[in-house]
Design goal:
The chain is mainly alpha-helical and about 625 residues long. It has helices spanning about 5-20, 35-50, 55-65, 85-95, 105-120, 125-135, 140-155, 160-165, 180-185, 195-205, 215-235, 245-255, 265-275, 290-300, 340-355, 380-395, 400-415, 440-450, 460-480, 500-515, 520-535, 555-565, 570-580, 610-624, and strands at about 35, 280-285, 595, 600-605.
């Protein structure tokens, strides 16, 4: 393939990406429908008001029945293999209607699901189901508790008195403690889990109170205050974290605890009804609008990157660009991918997405960006780094952008862990995923520091320099002996350990390659070892999967191509040839479930294959 072939392919991919632009010039994407989200939403609506919600409950159950896997179970997404969590929750959902009310499709789905669960857990006995759930989640009761509570409500854990004994009592009384005490006491109860902690703990207490009078009286005494805290944490649209599963778990538990008419349940029901899709399903989260928008901006402005400085080929009609490109526009037009009008709209939109107040769930300081523009999303390191890079690419650093960037950089600096790595949401304990240092997030933040270094005030600039040195040392320690890095929020369902080494390694290598200044030599040495792993992991057909033995995907191949393009054009060319064949020349972009949500729930995002491919092709042309 010569440069013209790659450029034509790139233009077709960019056309596809531009066709997904919303009316206000950004991207919203679309997460895969989720069996887990659909099951718990259906069940919650039935517990809140079965008669009023009969229609969405019926639609959700029929969607579940139509999307069961051939083996009788469900995976997290329609493309996922069956797993215990999705199958048990889907089976529970069918308790929303009595067995006599199930039509043939629903009855068949229940029978197949029970057969799958019996094979996986050893039997359908309540103790066997409980043991299987506990084994899956170990010490993390923040998800095992809700699953078992829903299973008890569905009648799968035996008669009520016995069933609730099999549900762990979550210490919801801790929810009334000052937030600062959680860190001081090193409790594995995190602020974003408090709504579920309160709801699941309360229903367990109401159904099976403690035999210890002091503890029982304490829980009775704090119930009203705990409910007020859950209400204060609930965003205006009713959806905790924009997540149907979390919101539904809270709603069903409070309804079962006798709080069916409380404000939290009413608002949660409104969120669930509003987020149902036309086909009767629910996604795991409403959208990743901020994340996919910054990914698209950074892909379409690759030519504007400051490191390395390479001139892209001229594009003849660049000045005559229009915005937005109409769907179905001719391919290969060579127009400017982000004309000035759209850049201005995106810049203003991104500036509005920065959180300017302490977040009620994480207690995170102002200054960061979340994954979505919706009120339930929480600021996190990856989205903050992505927004900082996008702002830098969109135009000159005027006062508004420079001030937002300085606050965003400070937000990331304050998040840095003692080991030098950057966690997702909160600094410091290292005992749960949300606060654990992560290589790809650390590398992303490192690149954001470098991009804004010259525009920062002297204080943050010096802090960023010290933080960057510590982050590089962390990345050196986190690199595996074979040169790979392990990401936290992305995985592969095709290997036993589920670690997506291609995603983690490609993202770190790409970030390290972009670094300049005094740390360039150290970064280059780490990147070279990572690139060697990627080259060894390329499949015979030119593609990459999440690991050496995993089947290839568009997302993983595109990420790897971008990471190796400058150093190994032959490997990149083989990857591009596979991408061209897999996408039918840019006409079809099937998404793979490589994303991991809380509690290791899998999802795919419709824009990932398109935006990753666009970025890879831009990087290849930049090196031409």
């Amino acid at each position: 393939m010569d440069t013209a072939d790659i450029a034509a392919f790139r233009d077709r991919v960019v056309d596809r990406l531009r066709a997904a632009v919303t009316s206000d010039g950004r991207w919203e994407g679309r997460l895969s429908s989720s069996a887990v989200a659909t099951a718990v939403a259906v069940f919650a609506l039935s517990r809140i008001d079965r008669r009023a919600h009969a229609a969405p409950v019926a639609r959700g159950l029929h969607w579940l029945a139509a999307h069961a896997n051939a083996d009788g179970g469900w995976g997290d997404s329609p493309e996922s293999p069956s797993n215990l969590t999705a199958t048990l929750l889907a089976r529970n959902a069918f308790a929303a209607v009595a067995s006599g009310e199930r039509d043939g499709a629903l009855a068949a789905a229940v029978a197949a699901a029970e057969a799958w669960l019996a094979r996986r857990a050893g039997s359908l006995e309540p103790d066997a189901l409980r043991a299987a759930v506990i084994l899956r989640y170990g010490a993390d009761r923040t998800f095992a508790g809700p699953i078992l509570a829903m299973t008890a409500m569905a009648g799968m854990l035996g008669p009520p008195a016995e069933a609730w004994q099999r549900v762990p009592q979550l210490p919801f009384e801790l929810g009334v403690l000052p937030h600062a005490l959680f860190r001081w006491l090193r409790l594995t109860v995190v602020s974003y889990a408090l709504p579920a902690l309160i709801a699941i703990g309360l229903v367990r207490h109401r159904r099976l109170p403690s035999r210890l009078p002091p503890l029982r009286l304490l829980r009775d005494a704090v119930t009203r205050r705990a409910l007020r805290i859950a209400e204060r944490m609930q965003p205006p649209n009713g959806g905790y974290e924009e997540a149907a599963p979390l919101t539904a778990f809270v709603a069903m538990s409070l309804a079962e605890a006798g709080c069916r008419e409380c404000a939290v349940v009413r608002r949660a029901a409104g969120f669930l009804l509003a987020s149902e899709r036309d086909d009767g399903s629910w996604p795991i989260d409403t959208n990743l609008a901020t994340w996919v928008t910054t990914l698209a901006i950074n892909a379409l402005t690759e030519r504007d990157a400051t490191e390395p400085q390479r001139r892209m080929r001229a594009r003849p009609d660049r000045r005559a660009a229009s915005f937005p490109a109409p769907p179905g526009a001719p391919a290969g037009t060579g127009r400017c991918d982000l004309p000035p009008e759209q850049r201005a709209l995106l810049r203003e939109w991104l500036l509005r997405q920065r959180h300017t107040e302490e977040h009620p769930l994480t207690r995170g300081a102002p200054g960061g960006w979340a994954w979505s523009d919706l009120p339930g999303a929480m600021p996190d390191a990856d989205d903050t780094a992505g927004a900082l890079l996008a702002l830098r690419r969109l135009g000159a650093a005027d006062h508004a952008a420079a001030d937002a960037a300085a606050q965003g950089v400070r937000w990331l600096l304050d998040l840095q862990n003692g080991d030098g790595g950057i966690p997702t949401f909160a600094r410091g304990w290292g005992r749960l995923p949300f606060d654990r240092s992560c290589p790809d997030i650390t590398a992303h933040a490192l690149r954001a520091f470098a991009e804004w270094r010259d525009a920062l005030p002297s204080g943050p600039r010096r802090r960023a320099a010290r933080a960057s040195a510590r982050a590089l040392r962390y990345l050196a320690r986190a690199q595996r002996a074979d040169g790979a890095w392990v990401p936290l929020w992305f995985g592969t369902q095709h290997t036993p350990g589920e670690a997506n080494l291609t995603y983690g390694t490609a993202q770190v290598v790409t970030a390290l390659d972009a670094l300049g200044g005094p740390r360039r030599r150290a970064a280059a040495a780490l990147a070279e070892r990572g690139r060697a792993w990627l080259l060894a992991a390329q499949r015979a057909d030119g593609s990459w999967g999440g690991d050496r033995d995993a089947p290839g995907s568009i997302e993983e191949t595109a990420l790897a191509v971008r990471a190796v393009a400058a150093a190994r054009r032959d490997a990149a060319a083989r990857g591009i040839a596979w991408l061209m064949e897999r996408t039918r020349g840019g006409a079809d972009f099937p998404a793979a479930p490589i994303g991991l949500y809380f509690a290791r729930l899998w999802y795919s995002e419709r824009l990932y294959p398109v935006v990753f491919a666009a970025h890879a092709l831009e990087a290849c042309l930049k090196c031409a």
